[in-house]
Specification:
Serine Threonine Protein Phosphatase 5, Tetratricopeptide repeat
């Protein structure tokens, strides 16, 4: 099988030789991928110049084509700025699925939120909880906050105050001030005798705000 044939459709996975060609090619292009991501992040956040989401999207797409999972998540965040019934939003959900399947914690968190709320996917709180739990187990503080809140109010899982306290205490150690503050407030609410809506205090972003792109783009209260 020729080298060019290895990079056509599913052919790159059809034979061991092709799989190795793909792995080596991607590894050699790692500096290029990181360059695309760095440029995209700067354009999205407006660092070093005006924010330009159109150019950022083009750079993210290049990195996505090379299989970069964080680029998939960041491109999905831009796509979620579109209406829920739009092609752009549907593409964002598809990108989150791809990144989540590659164990990208932020994608798991955001896709879990979509399933909790039924935005772009069926409303399946149990699926949302499992996705969020995976992100929490990977060490993402915002996901730990979300899991603690879910256990605290019995959302997508049976109510369990012991587990709620365990995950919220982990989230309090986050270096993200918004997440740690929300976790401390949620711990205080655990003393309530019945489930109450899990909401941060006014001015404190919700648990998905751990990701800098979410904070920057201020999308759908994420």
């Amino acid at each position: 099988m020729s080298g060019s044939a290895c990079f056509t459709g599913r052919a790159r996975w059809s034979r061991p030789a092709c799989r190795w060609r793909w792995v080596i090619s991607t590894w050699l292009r790692k500096p290029e991928i990181q360059g695309e991501i760095s440029t995209s992040d700067s354009l999205t956040l407006g660092q070093g110049g005006p924010r330009d989401l159109v150019r950022a999207e083009s750079y993210y797409r290049r990195a996505v084509a090379l299989g970069h999972r964080e680029a998939m998540t960041n491109l999905a965040l831009i796509g979620q700025m579109n209406p829920i019934d739009s092609a752009g939003y549907r593409e964002a959900i598809a990108l989150l699925r791809r990144a989540a399947s590659k164990a990208e914690p932020t994608a798991q968190l955001l896709l879990g939120r979509a399933y909790f709320d039924g935005k772009g996917v069926p409303r399946l709180p149990a699926v949302g909880f499992l996705l969020t739990l995976r992100a929490a187990q990977a060490g993402l503080p915002a996901a730990q906050l979300a899991v603690g809140g879910a256990y605290g109010e019995g959302r997508g899982t049976p109510r369990d105050l012991v587990q709620a306290r365990l995950w919220l205490e982990r989230a309090t150690s986050s270096t993200n001030q918004h997440v740690s503050e929300a976790a401390r407030q949620a711990l205080g609410r655990l003393e309530q005798p019945a489930p109450i809506p899990f909401r941060p205090a006014p001015g404190v972003p919700t648990w998905s705000a751990q990701h800098p792109m979410v904070t920057a783009l201020e999308m759908h209260e994420l």
